[in-house]
Amino acid sequence: MYVDDVLALVPSMPGRRVLLGLAGAPAAGKSTLARAMVEAVDARLGAGTAAYVPMDGFHLSNAQLDRLGLRGRKGAPETFDVDGYVHLLRRLRSRQAGTVYAPDFDRALDEPVAAGISVPPQARLVVTEGNYLADDAAGWHEVRDLLDELWFVETDPAVREERLLARHVTGGRTEAEARAFIEASERPNALRVESTRSACTRVVRPDGVSGAPR
User: Fold this and answer.
1) What CATH number did the domain enclosing 194 receive?
2) Is 34 in contact with 109 (CB distance < 8 Å)?
3) pTM for the complete prediction?
């Protein structure tokens, strides 16, 4: 899982922190890869050296999406609190004293969870992942400048859609409802994310194969 490459990013001097971003389409394997990277770094350099912070923690709540009429577009850029995400990245870069708390996302509830993640002060590497880390839209364009590295996670589209179907059915949708949501929302979102591939510094796959953006 690119362990040596990730270890090379970890600052050797105390007081420095590197932010690695993983962009990619829905169900590309970003969170699985990010967690594996953090576990590998901690296993090699000690617990708390690395931390995982997902962009998904900044989903708007379902109540807010209903209020805004965006529930059917959940997962699109406008259904996230991008300003909150950018603010968190700035805090993480600043190495403020003390623990930094970040929201997580509970797939069983399909809702964000406040302060579900803690980033300890000794963390020298933060791996963050999400769909729109390389996007140019208002607000999102600030994300890239706050990351030291931005990698694109690529997975076969058919595999991704199988994962999405299973994810939505597990979440309570019927198979027909899940397929309709994938068609109406997930595919357009994936196409948008794919268009940002060239803005990333490297392309990686969960199976360990990597290459250059094209």
Assistant:
1) 3.40.50.300
2) no
3) 0.94
